[in-house]
Amino acid sequence: MAAVQFDPNAPAFVRQFINLAHPKLGAAGLFATDEFFAPLSRMLNPEPAQFIPGKYDDHGKWMDGWETRRKRSNGHDWAIVQLGLPGVIHGVDIDTSHFTGNYPPAASIDACRCEGTPDDSTVWQEILPSTNLQGNSHHYLAVASREAWTHLRLNIYPDGGVARLRVYGEPACDWAGRDRSALYDLVAAENGGRPVAWNDAHFGAPHNLLMPGRGENMGDGWETRRRREPGNDWCIIALGHPGVIEQIEVDTCHFKGNYPDRCSIQAGYITGGTESSLITQSMFWPVLLPEQKLSMDAQHYFSSEIAKLGPVTHVRLNIIPDGGVSRLRLHGKLAVR
């Protein structure tokens, strides 16, 4: 099993926020001016880009990304991407991995907010000005706009290939008018839940815990390395909205010889401070779910075991001593902010 490769040079927004252009959230490539060498859909693949020596197709060298033909006229190529969730974008990664003599020299990004598919009447706003690109490189670029967007237009100048586009941001959830007697999964990515800190993610990223559906395989979950010292592993998650938790699901789907022996959950209602300060605070949060025995490849449901703590904003999932969890669901009622 391959370890998760976190780029040590990546800025904080890569770890803090989810990829709004993830296909599991519903993101899709809607249009490209050209897809001669490689289709737009490959650019949104959540897996790292690959290079396969000697692999060719009818159009030439097979490349893992979106690649246009060499432009022999004025203008530039561009593509429209629908985000999986409307959201506030904090940064992007324009990844040209494995594109060396065929990457675009520059790129820019425009954004819009619309209900349907963008058309000729759509008003676009530039959120990333033209920026020089390098071959076979990640380009981590901060976005200053704090508006919520639904679609992006990636412009490449004048042509070439982009391996991956990652769009890191916060889903824009409109909680106004929601039924306060209903239960919502308050840590679901689509409801604005997000991991804010964790002690280890060697084999699987914590963001997977909050994604829609059940895990596709063992790599589609949060998994830590084998612990060789006392203690346990943990992950702190911010709820999308303060709420009172009434039902909990811990799913170890696909984790068989490496599921945690037990788990527990602590919770707190936090105002002020920083995400770094949460790590110390979380050790002293009251227990929401006492230690529970887990089993392999199974959905575990808890309700009567949940302590009545009232509204909470953050939880700390403790896995004892280590291992992998595919999904965490915290169903609760909305609390007044």
TrEMBL record:
Enzyme class, broadest EC rank: hydrolase
Pathway terms, separated by semicolons: Nitrogen metabolism; (S)-allantoin degradation; (S)-ureidoglycolate from allantoate (aminidohydrolase route): step 1/1
EC number: 3.5.3.4
Positions of the Allantoicase domain: 26-171, 192-334
Keyword match Metal-binding: no
Catalytic activity: allantoate + H2O = (S)-ureidoglycolate + urea
InterPro entries: Allantoicase, Allantoicase_dom, Galactose-bd-like_sf
One example of a Gene Ontology biological process annotation: purine nucleobase metabolic process
Domain of life from the UniProt record: Bacteria
Alphabetic keyword roster: Hydrolase, Purine metabolism
Molecular functions per Gene Ontology: allantoicase activity
Family: Belongs to the allantoicase family.
Protein name: Probable allantoicase
Source species: Leeia aquatica
Species lineage: Bacteria, Pseudomonadati, Pseudomonadota, Betaproteobacteria, Neisseriales
Protein's gene: alc
